[in-house]
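In this supplementary section we document a worked example of the pipeline. Step one takes a protein sequence of length 443 as its only input; no multiple sequence alignment statistics are reported here. Step two produces a three-dimensional model, which step three serialises into structure tokens for compact storage. The input and output of this example are shown verbatim.
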Amino acid sequence: MNNLDSKLIKETPAHSYNHIEFDSKESIQATQEKLLIEHISYVAKHSPYYKNIFQKFSIDPSAITTIHDLIKIPCTSKKDLTCHNNEFLAVEQKDLSDICLTSATTGDRPTVIFQSSDDIARLTYNEEMAFEMMGINKNDRIMVCAAIDRCFMAGLAYYLGGLNSGSTMIRAGSGSPAQQWELIKTTRPTALVGVPSLIRKLGQFALQSNEDPKHMGIKKIIGIGEPIRSQELKLLPLPSEVETMWGAKLYSTYASSEMATAFCECEERCGGHLRPELLILEIVDDEGNPVPSGEKGEIVVTPLGIKGMPLLRFRTGDISFIVPEPCQCGRNTLRLGPIIGRKNQMLKLKGTTIFPSSILSALDSFGGVEGAYIEARKNEDETDRVLLYTAISDPGITIKNIVDHLRAKVRVVPEIIITEKEELERKTFPPEKRKKTTFFDYR
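The serialised model returned by step three reads:
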């Protein structure tokens, strides 16, 4: 960490807990519960939405004193946040500093996230700590290949966090591979932040230009927006290709605009560590009840210390699990496993429950495939019809080859349709979206 006088963004109360992850589990929980009581008190006083919830369900906010008490509060959904957006606002207009919009990757309209100056400082601290966890410091140059404009939160968070860590920041944004490659050659970053599939596309552009990404001096890549590991915490084929292509270590992160907090891998790279001073994590079943450690369920978060739009038990819609084993880095915080899929994207194919990401990850390990996307539709009998569109570069590959490969990997096989690479890229990289889209639900 740099000296305090090097900070460009003001200190937050969370800074006093910046190495809490090395405390005992008991001490971490005690600190979280202290911060939870403060958060509940603030929400009960300032949030119109939760005032109504507490009254409607006869909840005494002062009775919520432990993490286990949170179950007394109903979960908040994305639909709640969208439909009652302004009711979540807990400060006056004059106290707002920034407006963010969610990416709307599920097809819903974007949700507005209002941030106070305290929230901006908290967001900055979150990414500052994430960079420190990955061993990135003031000796690094970080190139952010994520949009910092259009009211998106991610690029802003990484940029501010990097500044506060003392690193030199390069605002590449979500430009074309040609633009970003020129920036890399000009500015010589040591770390990249971006979506892994787009970082691969950038590397492929360099190779096609007879230049080698491995010679650029990039040591670390912070992957955002896509899972990079299997449920066994092993690198998936595409991320493994990225590491080989760039000669760099790839780190996984998971976050959302609503939680304004990142789960980030440490240098052991075995799951995303929770920042306990910033967020309480639950993994729940369909009824909102916690599942045992290690079991899969929906990620529910209570971000602590947010002033503008504080949330309680927010359902992310993402499915994952808590990694039960202790981390070799010595931190005692909970670790979140890879995102297995989105709850509303779950498919029932030939009697088997499966997520689109499982099919696409299995296909990634098949040589000669240029990419793929999935469409889900309804059959006449209301069962799921799943279509896999893929482009291939090897003319020797047949649909039967792909069927055999998928059957060996995921047991069930969707309908397979061969498409052109240009059509695939047009479909999966729509200009109005900031993330690659590989699942289209028409059910």
